[in-house]
Specification:
It is a single chain. By secondary structure, the chain is of the alpha/beta class.
């Protein structure tokens, strides 16, 4: 029997897709962005011409998609960069290539390992450095560190951790992890500035007026192929029926955009609400500031918030609710919106997810982020989910049980972490 191999061994789709989501911008524009926005951008240090940045971007993309070697990249990009820098610098060109391709491969691998089915069978990760004379102290000190996949260490230690880093992450079965030795605490070693952060979505969108028309058209074509990237909720797609009172159109948009911050846009497309309403009041029998009806998958959020239900100091374990710590009325409404969406995430997950929530709620080590979160298991999950969206660091520190619970549920529901 003859076997015919049809897969392309050089193409790593997740790596290609991750890199293609980076928009080329100049070094000067990149410097103006905050940390979250930089996750959505690609630049080359010391390059001020956008066409040069875009040429470098195309070279990296070709290497990711077709497996072209550094020598091919250097022939085109090396000459352009030498002209931009005023002199050739072969080492610097290679560093750009190695950093970009390694980042793409590592992020692609990260996305594969975060798949719920993979995490279920390989729930531990190991930092895997290349050990030779060129290994840096950073990678040498982290090599063979084994921790649970949901450990916060991985939020800041996804290779590359420095220029020309060759390390990777390996997923392990429980038996493999135990054999190698699971760490209780990770080494106190940080990535170099600008490196190590796990992939994120970010909320930044470019000002297309600043870019050449061909790049504008390319960006719009990409979003047309993937309209979910914009993150806007739409009637008929994310909820079957929608109504709003008491908010301007701009305020309505800001409330709905909180679903993108909570990374629920794709989830709501897969599991839309039957109805969403934003109105001055909701049924008093189902809550004051928000309500969710599980049997109907219907949700309402109150737009007429009393002054004593927002603007309060947030104190983990002492505040009444996450929404009460909203800086103003609109922020409180956004937080309630995310809280109610948390019920939708929890209560559409079936028995397996509810058991996870129940177990966490009954765990003697659980420490609800708010007093409202301690009333029932449903409110424990939704308040923890709202905290995960708006106060993630505080949740991880104050209630590790709730933090782990949220991440387990999101993973099972196919929601990005």
């Amino acid at each position: 029997m003859t076997f015919r191999i049809t897969a392309d061994p050089l193409r790593f789709d997740q790596a290609v897709q991750w890199f293609r989501a980076r928009l080329p911008i100049t070094d000067a524009e990149f410097a103006k962005l905050d940390r979250e926005a930089r996750d959505r951008a690609f630049t080359v240090s010391g390059v001020h011409q956008l066409d040069v940045v875009h040429s470098v971007w195309r070279g990296i993309d070709k290497a990711n998609a077709a497996g072209t070697p550094f020598e091919d990249f250097k022939k085109v990009a090396g000459k352009l960069l030498a002209e931009e820098w005023g002199e050739p610098n072969a080492a610097r060109v290679e560093t750009i290539f190695r950093n970009a391709t390694q980042s793409s491969l590592s992020r692609g691998r990260y996305l594969q390992m975060k798949d719920p089915d993979v995490v279920r069978f390989r729930p531990f990760w190991m930092y895997d450095a290349v050990r030779d004379s060129r290994t840096t102290p950073v990678c040498n000190g982290l090599d063979e560190t084994v921790l649970p996949a949901e450990h916060p260490f991985w939020d800041t230690h996804i290779p590359p951790l420095h220029h020309r880093c060759r390390a990777g992450i390996r997923s392990l079965r429980p038996s493999e992890a135990e054999k190698r030795g699971i760490r209780r605490d990770p080494p106190n070693i940080d990535a170099d500035p600008g490196f190590g952060r796990a992939p994120g979505t970010g909320d930044w969108e470019p000002n297309l007026a600043k870019y050449p028309k061909p790049l504008q058209r390319a960006y719009r074509r990409r979003n047309a192929r993937n309209p979910k990237a914009a993150g806007a909720l739409k009637e008929g797609t994310h909820f079957k029926k929608f109504s709003a009172q008491g908010l301007s159109d701009a305020e309505q948009s800001k409330v709905l955009e909180a679903a993108r911050k909570a990374k629920l846009v794709d989830f709501l497309e897969r599991r839309p609400l039957s109805e969403l309403f934003l109105k001055p009041s909701v049924s008093s029998g189902h809550g004051v500031n928000g309500a969710y009806w599980p049997s109907l998958e219907r949700m309402g959020v109150r737009t007429k918030r009393p002054g004593d239900t927002f603007g309060q100091l947030f104190e983990p374990g002492k505040s009444w609710s996450i929404s009460y710590s909203g800086k103003d009325k609109l922020d409180a409404i956004r937080r309630t919106f995310v809280h109610e969406l948390g019920h939708h995430v929890h209560l559409t997950g079936g028995t397996a997810i509810d058991q996870i929530v129940q177990q966490a709620y009954n765990d003697p080590k659980a420490s609800p982020m708010t007093r409202y979160g301690g009333t029932t298991r449903q409110e424990y999950f939704s308040e923890s989910f709202a905290a995960y969206t708006f106060h993630r660091g505080a949740l991880r520190k104050h209630d590790p049980v709730g933090y782990k619970m949220v991440r387990q549920v999101l993973g099972l529901q196919g929601i990005p972490l």
